[in-house]
Amino acid sequence: MAETYTHTHLQDAPATTQWSWNIVVLGSGESGVGAALLGKQRGYHVFVSDGGKIKDHYKQELIDNGIEFEEGRHTEERILMADEIVKSPGIPEKNEMVKKIRAKEIPIISEIELAYRFKGESKIVAVTGSNGKSTTTSLIYYICQKAGLDCALVGNIGYSFAKQVAENPKPLYVAEISSFQLDDIKDFKADVAVLLNITEDHLDRYDYSFQKYIDSKFKIVQNQHEQDNFIYNLDDEVITNKLKTILLTSNLLPFTMKQEPKKGAYIKGDQMMLKVNEERVSMNIYDFAQTGKHNQYNTMAAGVAAMTMDIRKEKIREAVETFESLEHRMEPVAVVRGVEFINDSKATNINSTWFALESMTKPVILILGGTDKGNDYSILESLVKEKVKTIVCMGVDNTKIHAAFDKIVPIVDTASAHDAVQASFDAAEKGDVVLLSPACASFDLFKNYEDRGKQFKEAVKAL
User: Fold this and answer.
1) Of 50, 82, 109, which residue sits at a domain end?
2) Whole-structure pTM value
3) Are residues 139 and 261 in the same domain?
4) Does residue 15 sit within a domain?
5) Binding-site sequence positions
């Protein structure tokens, strides 16, 4: 029997004029501090608890706003007195404190749920997917800016949604939403929901169950009404198979390269067609600022989202033709003695690297490696054979990369960004591309993918 996804009534939020409602915020990163600020502003009694060290600038914000906090521990008695817990997305369910909260049946919500509770009449465009979220969210935001809409870019990219609602509310929020953020929503509803793709990622957080991860991504549509829009990738079999098992009330707007749907978006030849309601827009794909098939998918999704907001086609066209790539996502760094360097440090899973390689038109020296999340490197095999001259490993343990590619291409082991860049430059010839697209998380050698990308760029500029 098919599940039915319908809107659930937003329960009356606690009174905002009394200090009677106790919330505990677990985690003090961007989303945790944002949730604390919004909770305090709306009259909740807020306590922030972080098992690690709170960064100095976040600590100062809490102090400036008179918000109680602790770091380096979780005081169990205090936390378990809460009426509600706001859990930062980085904290997994297997965390001991989370287990105790669940056992006591204290409601746990995410920061985006708290932000939704107080966003008023504002609209939300929410983007999720395993790959392309940041690019697509940023492109939608860029189109909205070009069209003169008063909006904010929030969520998993940049600014905390809750903090934006607290400090500078807008009539429109364009939000990048991860599966971790969706896990703890109750009433959160996107007016426009975008689902780009679903590939195996973060399975360590979902008991190594791909189905649990799929279900988490689909929470983006669970509260939608008939007047809401769901934009999705019709070429993604995981998505289309899941859609056969659920009943949606929202307006379905697919995008595809393989069919010609009556509404949504498709590419035929060199033309991208957008069709929403009676409006139609046609664009030449060779005019897109973003190249590669993966970016054509992202552009279709963003274009359809823009059309649901009645943005004029001239503005959509102008934005698509002038949008620049994000830092750490297929970011051109430099050309040194005829060798091009590209920073795709944000590629933290196999599929991101597959898309990056698929878009390459020159011979590639590929920098791979980091903290493996259960990668199946065989997915890259045909593209490595076709496009890669040398693999440079940049990680503590490169065993799986060697096992996958030793018989296909030469492999060099390095243990720093500087050494990886030097080894790549040594292996490259004029006309080649050195592509940092690691397919792994960065935590073995770096603070995060941004740190990895910055160190890569610094090493390139030092050549």
Assistant:
1) 109
2) 0.77
3) yes
4) no
5) 129-135
